Amino acid sequence: AFFSLQEQNKPETHPLRDPESRGTAALRTLALVRRTEGNDAAGSLYEAIGERVHERQEDLTIDLVRHALEDVGLRAGLLDDALSDDVTIKEVSEEHYAVAASVGCFGVPTIVLPSGEAIFGPVITVAPTGEAAGELWDHFEWLTRQDYFFEMKRERGDARPGSRASS
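Predicted structure:
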């Protein structure tokens, strides 16, 4: 599901209408790709955008989205198609507000589980890979299925081994 902090924080300015607004081109392109190419293609594009932003430290611009489309073998013109298609604004906006309503709080990224339940987290300082990533998700997902589980939080701090945050 789509979620936009800009849409959440400034809905009166309609940031999804401004293609230069950070993240707008990505969200609208993802919406069009999902609608026309399928969920797997949208997932691949999302991953390519994330790699460029988080691993390569590139700015989230229109050009980045265009390059990410090419990275996954999609037509770069899908970006222009998305920005000229106002339906993408509606798709992103409707999903954004549905997610915000389902989690019961605003301004937080949310995971919507297959059950339809919306959750925030887990928030971690280092993203595990391979088996460790699967194990983390398996444990976290198990915990979310327990009727008695509501919330877990701990004090923020240094997450190095031996520190209070990592204990």
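Summary: The longest strand covers residues 111-112.
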